[in-house]
Amino acid sequence: MVNGKGRRPGRASTLLRSSAWWAFALRRLGWSLATVAGVVAITFLISHIIPADPAALAAGERATHEQVEALRHQLGFDRPLLTQLGDYYYRLVQGDLGKSLFTSRPISADLRSRLPATIELTVAAMFLTIVLGVPIGVLSALRRNSWLDHVVRLVTVSGLAIAGFWLAIILQLSFAMDLGWLPLGGRLPPDYPPPATITGLYLIDMLLAGDLHGFGVAAAHLALPTVTLAFPAMATIVRFTRAGMLDTLNKPFVQYERAMGLPDSIVVWKYMLRNALTSTITQIGLVAGALLGGSVVIEAVFDWPGLGYYAVNSIIMSDYNAVLGFTVWVAIIYILINVAVDVLQRLIDPRGTS
Fold first, then answer.
1. Which architecture, in CATH terms, is 114-319?
2. Among the listed residues 294, 148, 153, the one whose alpha carbon sits nearest the alpha carbon of residue 230
């Protein structure tokens, strides 16, 4: 059906809705930039009020007071704090994260070299979280108050309550030291040559090189940190998927689809799940950001050479520039993940984003 001008009705409203969506996206982008600026300011101020003196640490134990003061002046630490923050913002806009106080390497280069390890661990944990969390949440909702549902709820509560570092140590003691099934830590054995760098992800690079044995070795080293990182995230996804399915279970459209004679498998996995995943998709984005932050502790326990391990060492050494660079990278990645989640949620939810 068309109007008097030969156009289909709804075309203008569709364009208007698209314009509204772009306006919404621009607003979100503006707030995201403000969020990054705020995170940088808070991290900058906290890192500069701790009692450790990075100039003295960088100068060494045998440095004289005059040498320490000269280094402090060279690094700009003797200037007012707000002036230092303003200078950092100026360099940050230009893409300059500065140099490490201890390695003298550009921080962006250090972060790029360690980013693939963190991406590999986070993606593996996210994959395990979604592949197990969503189906378990669906089955738990369909069998509400059954023994399966009670077991799932007990496991999810445990996942939210157990500290990540404690679980990591328990898994190391059980599967690495007592049983000897999996390696204790690291990304590869010390005497095993890493694959040729193509993507930086060892599993993919091993497959591209045709090294199936190396793939198995890398997967074995990835197993324990992945399970540790994914366990609390999976508990969150299970709980939100279960709640969404229970809310959708008695909706009129579900009863209509069943009255039409559609098999339960199609009703559940095609129609119910799509409507139940709206809140779950949002949580997946939040969980992905939490995995980046949670990897700091997990990487330190498993000696995983990623961004988190780099951040821990930088904090111990009071390397302010490195800590700030890590914070900026994680904040930007977290924001990009949330933007992607907003787009995906709009595609899944027919009502769109207002």
1. Orthogonal Bundle (1.10)
2. 294
Whether 220 has a pLDDT exceeding 90, the answer reads: yes
Do the beta carbons of residue 68 and residue 56 sit within 8 Å? yes
Residues with Cβ within 8 Å of 304's Cβ and at least 6 positions away in sequence, in order, are: 117, 121, 185, 186, 187, 225, 295, 298
Strand partners, 106: 99
If you write DSSP's letter for every residue of 284-329 in order, what string do you get?
Answer: HHHHHHHHHHHHHHHHHHHT--SHHHHHHHHHHTT-HHHHHHHHHH
Domain boundaries, given as residue ranges, for the chain: 114-319
Q: Give the residue among 326, 328, 335 at the shortest CA–CA distance from 110.
A: 326
Q: Which two tokens stand for residue 162?
A: 């157990």
The residue-averaged pLDDT of 278-285 equals: 74
Environment class of 284 (CB within 10 Å of its CB; exposed 0-12, middle 13-18, buried 19+):
buried
Q: pTM of the predicted model, to two decimals?
A: 0.76
Task: Quote the strand ranges of 187-286, DSSP E.
Answer: none
Please check the confidence at residue 191 and state whether its pLDDT lies above 90. no
**For the stretch 315-324, what's the b/e string if a residue is b when 16 or more beta carbons lie within 10 angstroms of its beta carbon?**
bebbbbbbbb
